[in-house]
Amino acid sequence: MDVKKDILWRVYLCFLGIIVLGVVVLGRAFYIQRIQGSYWKSMSDSLHLKYMPINGERGSIYSEDGNMLSTSIPVFDIYIDFGAEGLREKNGKRFYDNLDSLSSSLSNLFNDASAQDYKKELLLAYQNEDRYFLLKRKISFEQYKQLRDFVLVKEGRNKSGFIIDVRDSRVNPYVLLANRTIGLSRGDTSKNVGLERTYDSLLKGQTGQRLMRYMAGVYVPVDGAEIEPENGKDIITTIDTYMQDVAENALMKMMVMNNSLHGTCIVMETETGKIKAIANLGKRPDGTYMEDYNYGIGKKTEPGSIFKLATLLSLLEDKHVDTNTIVDCEGGSKLFYGLKIRDSHLGTGRITVKQAFARSSNVAFAKLAEQYYHNNPTQFYNHLHHLRLDTATGVDIVGQAFPLIKKPGGKFWGATTLPFMAHGYEELITPLHMLMVYNAVANNGRMMKPYLVNSVRDMGVDIKSFTPQVLVEKICSDETLGKLKDCLLNVVESEHGTAHSLKTGMYSFAGKTGTAVTALDNRGYNKANKIYQSSFIGFFPVEKPKYTIAVVIQNSNESKLAYGGVVSGPVFREVADKVYASDLSYHPFFQSAAVKDSSTYNYYGLKNDINKILSVLDLPYLDSGAAGYWRSINMYDNKVILNAMNNPSAQSAVMPRVLGLGLKDAVYMLENYGLIVTVGGRGKVIYQSLQEGTTFTKGQTINIQMN
User: Fold this and answer.
1) Is the pTM of this model over 0.70?
2) Neighbours of 407 (CB within 10 A)
3) CB 588 within 8 A of CB 289
């Protein structure tokens, strides 16, 4: 008995322990579910739910003449949730019933695999219950429209499992046109260039959010859990697509012909500083050219002889010389502190400063700078500073290079610095810097800030506008300006001018050529490695300059031509010719004496419309029709007669005449008679399928053909 009691006591004790344990488990479960439930649910959601950013539609970039230079188009990524209830219910009956038809449709749409291959792929993904199966990336809108009408897909996301992820893809409709200036928009905006990067914050708008659920290794969007993004603003540039196209074609033609390495052509509106065109071309390893870098704004080099304009301005403004001052070129070769400076044409002796500028004598300008500024080089430097040649241009685009102008007393200033700077060496500046100086001379001394954007636009309304900005009100005196313009014109007009071969009888232009020796791959200026940079900067027409153009081309050691007058000059001339020819403001209109027109004209239309037109044109007329809304016009020898058209009333069942009417009037008349109108062509009606005077019934179809 004692043993039995002992066993029962232990059984009861175990039973009681089990009951207590059960109560504790149930109590804990109740506590977790009811008391801590919200905490654990939030923790679960934090592990499986995540808000991810969604970008708004990026704004477009337009040219000043309204053409689209960069825009976003929608592309679609297609996913399938094979765990969707609609696909799994009834043992997947909906999926299996539509599998063959869907596979065939996908094969025909994308044409990248057979229907059988698509069937195998979809069947395997269904069996694996893939929750976010990628079917296809970056399909077009046209493909998407076809896809959404396919069997199964058209039943909606819950029944088909198809998930459509829409995103934007950036395209440049004109491809190469101003590509480097307009820029590139990538997923990582820090890698953007050009205006796409400069105005990224405006173009991208406000980022939204989308709730995503993590399942099967991927994040799947949760329906109805989105914060809509705000679309970006549009940018209206100063670029003119015609000028840009002309500049790129002219630059490309010369660079291909001369086997050049890279080049730029910039067209600036003289009065405002607007950049109307900026072409940048670089040679690729395969020999083709593309916009690979913004050479006009971001590439600083030794400018060569185009810099002589700044030297001449300094000399004239300080009254050291006049344009008639005689300077001895010493045969075109002279040593300066052990380094020789040579002219491109040897043998030149005593000539005027004006002639030295036209012939681009290096010796002359080196001697003059050394003679008058050797003891006070700061005076020369101050002129360059006033011309902002040591300051960033301020153009509204990232990537602009900062110039290097040596300062007297600095560690880089040496004995040869002044004479070499005077004719375009020992300084590093961009083509845009020099263009600003030449443009200031053309603009009566007023230096304008160059800019690329006219306005920021939202929903078709300008919300911010940019206006011309003056950087320097007067770069020099009017007397100096007049002499500078005369010297620049002489470069083209003079028989010995370096740009004389570019002269045209159609219009007058002024400018300066430049040829700088550069070192190939930084291996020094020895004879084997030196190559040439060719430049031309000028403005037209001289009487009232409208555009200033800079062309700078870096040649290769295989280039046959080197001098600015035969490399960059022809590019300037081609661009100027085409811009001049296309601008009607350059070409006056001549009004000839009025003569009587003996031709006969016949028109048809509503009486009120015809009366209004004739009144605006101040043409007297005689209306012979007593009633009715429609008239025919007979015009001969400047006499206008209106006749009533023989049309029955709208209640009649007799076909009216519509021959000679415009489309709007013809459709208006026929539909008032209850007819259904089909139309072919455009212009005026030359054929009606139901002939005038025949009977018809309302609702009958009539075909009209236009001329």
Assistant:
1) yes
2) 16
3) no
